[in-house]
Amino acid sequence: MNAIIVDDEPYVRQMLKNLIHWDNQSLNLVGEYFNGQDAYLRMKEDDRIDLVITDLRMPLMDGLQLIKETLAIRNDITFIVISAYNDFHLVKEAFLLGAKDYLLKSEMTEDHINQTLSNLRLNDRKKLAAASNKDLMKESLLSRLTAESMTASDIDSLKDLLCNREKKRFILLLLRLNKVDASAATPEVSMKNTISECLSPTEEILASSSQAQVEIIQTSPLEYLILALYAPQESETCIMNHIRYAMGTFRPSGFHVNLGVSRTSIEFSSLPQLLHEARLSVDYCFVAGNGSVIPFTPQFEETPSRLSIDSRLQISILKDQLSAILFDKLKPDIHKLLIAPQTVCAGQIRAIKELYMQYHFILIDFAMQNGLHGELRALSKAYEEHLKFYGDMNSLNKWLSSVIAVVKAHNGENSMINQVKHYVEEYYAHDISLQSVANKFNINSSYLSRLFSEKGDTTFTDYLAHARITKAIEFMKISNLKIYEICEKVGYTSPEHFSRTFKKMTGKSPKQFMDGREQ
């Protein structure tokens, strides 16, 4: 099958060319265009184009006009539209015009793009031809529901397809797979069938299992919309028991299963509202914890009152806590930073996720400025590759606690090094040694030696020698003291030892240095 890409941004066209598995999808790229007008002229003259991947905002002719004009002369062409998040209203219009799917620019990963293409079943003309019009219509209508572009006529059509003039009680589910770790693979295409099998009617739970049916579409690589229909007399309790039982048997390897459940209804006109409820419910799994089944409650739509997410205040608190750790001004209190799950409502989830993203940015910046990047590299990677996308509140709070613990441990040791250095610079003229300083600070001399080597980038002995010789050079420059007098003033009892150390550090003997000073 032949495909073209239409986008006015060269980097987007290049990214699509690189990420699409052209051979696996049985696709040939036969053209790329930076505006809709040129693409339209090509398709007007060439009837071999099967697929168009197009941006919606372009010069000369935008994506919506391209879809409308092209499908007026060629209704067999499949359109996938590309959109920015803040242009999603245009995606709804594209679906009304006949687009089959969409890609958000912020989510255009290799897996997502190829899963979207696979879902269209473009790579198997025979399968597409053999599929019943009824199945294709159901899938198309449910896709429109997902895109929030369903009209009253679409709702009536879906009702006719699914109910055959019988009354049904139905419920909408949003099933979201969250990876257990960053290494988990994208779900197999067969995952949809597995979900369907798990939701098969159960006579032991349902009063009229023969009248139950399930319709599923994949809305993203890790999310599925499920419309479950039951006999009208089936109670909501039995329906929920069936769903919970089904989810108990669905345990895909490498994934947490989060499920948002709407209320039940017998009116198909309520489908958009039920979708809204299912989305709020599955989002709340972020608060309840990965692996939750969350039925909708009206409280999810209530205006937050118990907790206001003040990002500026929280960031200020984080910076104060880091300052407290850095300068030992006060004992840090991690609980001021953590958001307690029991205080959160559904409307605050997006703000909380954004807050933890800001936490990560501040912490990594702090790490870079204070030599902590190495210690925090693994924790930063865990956030960037996994927790940012699949973490729940509990795992994010544990991550933040771990980061603060690393900072405290690092700075506790650095604080000790700084205190020892300050002591050496003040008492260099005294008879001090590794052991005497260790005794002074009530620590083991071997530990102090290791700490200096690892955190101070030098040994204690070398640091003491450097402090004494630096001071000796100052005396040589500003005074008329004799070498033996300077030797005693900087803490050396042996002139020979002083001379050897001086030459090792400066390349000259004390006498040579002083002679050179006089020239």
From TrEMBL:
Please give the Pfam families that the UniProt record associates with this protein: HTH_18, Response_reg
Q: What keywords are assigned to this protein?
A: DNA-binding, Phosphoprotein, Transcription, Transcription regulation
Record's keyword annotation contains Ribonucleoprotein? no
**Domain HTH araC/xylS-type: from-to ranges:** 418-516
Does this UniProt record's set of keywords contain Secreted? no
Question: Which superkingdom does the taxonomy of this entry point to?
Answer: Bacteria
4-aspartylphosphate occurs at 55
List each copy of the Response regulatory domain by range.
Answer: 2-120
Name under which the protein is recorded: Response regulator
- Origin organism of this chain? Paenibacillus glycinis
